[in-house]
Specification:
The complex is a heterodimer of chains A (122) and B (220). Chain A is an alpha/beta fold. Helix content of chain A is 31%, strand content 23%. Chain B is globular. Classes of the chains: A alpha/beta (122), B alpha+beta (220).
Chain lengths: 122, 220
């Protein structure tokens, strides 16, 4: 059976490595990207899920999410947002960008990323 | 609300936001430590916790110092900037290595001596280094020293995103940055009769501090 592929985007390298460790331990293939431009090239129709931080160094995540939504081939890939500023996000604003789950970095357990990806897999 | 009180409240909020990220990460790493598979993985996680803690403590130290600048009696002395940059690069190397990045110091034929408070200048350069860490994935971050018109421009070149405008009296930070680090650097520079600036490149930026050159060497 083909391994599910997850693209993870976060400009904090340590955070990125943590997600990668957890997801790879759970059997996922992970493409770890520190910026949106790199991530765009990693995402394809075969991508199972996308994990993204809301505050990225090169582009805001909203611009990244817009770009994904504009491409029919990848627009339906479920997105999980992980952020330190969850409390500032008005409820319901991210759903139109294909965001299925929002995780709060300040309260999440490292394994929550695995549970979130499994929950959005089609 | 009193304007000064309002400004202080905003500063507190920004500082809290800047400290939230490393604290959240330390928390997650600590939880991950409980289920580490191997001794090597445990050591790597512990090393990351230590390095991130150091970085967060640098920020809290800078915030404290910045708030008490009026009350400090600061000494100004000739400082060998090349040596200082090498010391700072050495201090940041473990953090950069842990992230798969590198930090270097550009070679100079002659040492550059400036008049500054060594500790404040060191803090400014450490701050530049902490900021550039995110943006040193293509090329190493590099300390550069240029001299002109009695001033030394000590900068850190990275390969990160370009800010929207050139340096002004209100120096803009990177996209998604609160600008707190730059504001603290500006206050430290001001008290040394210096200034903070940035320079755009095709593939990154240099943030620099400008301070007065020492005339000691020219007298030899």
């Amino acid at each position: 059976m083909k391994q599910a592929s997850v693209v993870v985007v976060d400009d904090d390298i340590t955070q990125l490595q943590l997600y990668q460790r957890q997801l790879e331990k759970a059997g996922f293939t992970v493409a770890a990207c520190s910026d949106a431009a790199t991530a765009i090239h990693q995402i394809s129709a075969d991508t199972t899920a996308i994990v993204v931080d809301l505050l990225l160094g090169y582009n805001t995540s909203i611009a990244f999410l817009h770009e994904l939504q504009s491409d029919d081939e990848v627009a339906d890939i479920p997105i999980i947002v992980c952020s330190n500023i969850v409390e500032t996000i008005p409820e319901g604003t991210l759903a139109s960008y294909g965001v299925h789950r929002v995780l709060d970095k300040t309260t999440m357990h490292p394994t929550d990323i695995v549970a979130a990806v499994r929950s959005v897999m089609l | 609300m009193d304007e000064r009180l309002l400004e202080r409240s905003s500063t507190f909020v920004i500082a809290a936001h800047e400290l939230k990220s490393p604290l959240a990460l330390i928390r997650q790493l600590s939880l991950e430590l409980e289920t580490a598979d191997s001794e090597q993985e445990r050591r790597d996680i512990i090393s990351h916790i230590s390095l991130i803690s150091d970085k967060a403590l640098r920020l809290t130290g800078n915030i404290t110092k910045s708030a008490n600048l009026d009350q400090l009696s600061l000494e100004f002395e000739p400082v060998n900037v090349t040596q200082l940059c090498e010391d700072v690069a050495h201090e940041l190397s473990p953090l950069y290595r842990a992230m798969g990045r590198r930090i270097e110091v550009e070679r100079r034929r002659r040492p550059a001596l400036v008049v500054a408070n060594r500790e404040l200048l060191r803090r400014i350069l450490l701050g530049f280094g902490d900021n550039a860490l995110h943006y040193a994935n293509n090329k190493p971050a590099r300390f550069t020293i240029a001299t002109s018109n009695g001033r030394a421009l000590i900068g850190l070149r990275d390969s990160g995103p370009i800010t929207r405008q050139q340096a002004t009296s209100e120096l803009p930070g990177r996209p998604q940055s609160s600008g707190l680090g730059l504001e603290i650097a500006r206050r430290f520079a001001d008290i040394m009769n210096g200034s903070i600036g940035n320079q755009k490149h095709r593939d990154g930026m240099t943030f620099y501090v400008s301070v007065q050159l020492s005339t000691q060497l020219s007298l030899l």
